[in-house]
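Session log. Operator J.P. requested a structure for one protein chain; no other inputs attached. Running the standard single-chain path with token output.
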Amino acid sequence: MRVILVFLLCIGLLAGAPAEAGAWLREKGSGFLATSAVLRGPTETPQLENRIYAEYGLFRHLTLGIDLNHKTAVDETELVAVQTGHAVLFLRVPLAPESWRTRYALELGLGRTMRETGRARMSSLALAVGRGFERPFGGGWMSLQATIEHHAGMAGRSYKLDSSVGLSNGRMFRPMLRLEASRVADAPVSWSLIPAIQIGRGDRTVWVLGVEHRFGPTPRTGVELAIWREF
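Structure written below.
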């Protein structure tokens, strides 16, 4: 928890919109698509996660999105593939005027989740805060999103905290840092630190290459490759 607090303090001191952040809405008629894959070790029990994330500006103050996630892992005791994931359709609305430098947004999601025990309905509620910044080394963004998820048939709720800071100064290589923390029901907190590089000069297509360090009950290290596309 001290590491999380230090990281949030650092990005607060840093404080353009990020390509994938819940505090900003898409302009009407514009969209964004991200596909990513993460391969996690150790090599004896690898885990592959695929994700498709899309947003579309349905109206000026309403963004429609979808989040598809699929994980395939190997059960260490039975040596069989275990598949989990979710499919969520969400709506995002602003909570503050566009003239404010700091952006606030509310996100409501409905979908289905896939667990080892089967499929079930799920719902989510998220509050996001974001802010752009200008510094001598270039402009960028910082964002923080807190999410509560309810899964049918599961005792308790899931809690997530996602934070990111990155540069959007038009250079070919731009650093980015993400922190993702989660807690499922009464299970211990697990969190990941993901330093990454955005590759591309800020045009409509950006490649992202990152290294994930996951801490918690089952620590893992992974490599992430993603493609961001605006349209």
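Operator note: The helical segments are 2-14.
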